[in-house]
Design a protein that fits this description.
The protein is of the alpha/beta class. It is 36% helix and 19% strand. It has 8 helices and 9 strands. It has helices at 23-32, 59-65, 76-83, 107-116, 132-136, 148-151, 155-161, 173-191; strands at 13-17, 36-40, 55-56, 68-71, 98-101, 122-125, 128-129, 140-144, 162-167. The strands form 2 sheets. It has a 6-stranded parallel beta sheet with strand order 3-2-1-4-5-6. Helix 1 (23-32) links the parallel strand 1 and strand 2 (36-40). The radius of gyration is 16 Å and the shape is globular.
């Protein structure tokens, strides 16, 4: 189900940073649902085929375009690079006012990031479950570190990319749920 076209989210430009196996199909799902999307990755824009025209080559240009950041980079260090160090999105003069961290990282790291972000940024942890094929088919499961009311402004984005939304409470609880999900999955594989 796609979001309500009257939603405020549809008036914003969504930036997807980390357009790899998961991020690129997520960005395409957002475009397919009617969102204005720009992509950012450290790889050259020409490597993105039919999505290349929506890719932005520099972090400062990306920041100037996007209102909402969805980061799907590989790990904690790449998240720090993207947000505060190499690309330093949140140290630019203009930066996204909403940040959704979809990468799987430590729940404690979420607290560290929240403490470093500017005070005017709404921050959500939204780790997902599902392989790249699930991202392509818009059927990811999201574990959201917020209650439904708090996450309402970003709900249309999540619904455009997935079909199962689990609102787990406060910041960091989405990531805690994801870590537990990974543990249970690994235990099942080991048991089999």
């Amino acid at each position: 189900m796609s979001g309500n076209p009257e939603s405020d989210a549809f008036s914003k430009t969504i930036g997807v940073a980390g357009c790899g196996a998961m991020g690129l199909p997520m960005a395409k799902a957002l475009v397919g649902s009617g969102f204005t999307v720009s992509g950012f990755d450290i790889r050259p824009t020409k490597e993105f085929g039919d999505f290349a025209s929506k890719m932005v080559a520099s972090a400062d240009e990306f920041c100037g375009r996007v209102d909402v950041l969805i980061s799907v980079v590989r790990d904690q260090q790449q998240t720090l690079d993207l947000y505060f160090e190499e690309q330093a999105i949140f140290k630019q003069p203009t930066y996204p006012k909403t940040c959704l961290l979809a990468s799987t990282v430590s729940p404690r790291f979420i607290e560290q990031v929240a403490a470093l972000l500017p005070n005017d940024v709404s921050f959500f942890d939204i780790p997902m479950s599902g392989a790249p094929i699930a991202a392509m088919e818009k059927r990811l499961s999201f574990m959201i570190g917020a209650d439904e009311e708090t996450a309402e402004p970003v709900r249309p984005l999540l619904e455009a990319m997935g079909r199962d939304l689990h609102f787990l409470g406060g910041l960091g609880k989405g990531m805690a749920g994801k870590v537990l999900n990974n543990f249970v999955a690994a235990a099942c594989v080991t048991a089999v």
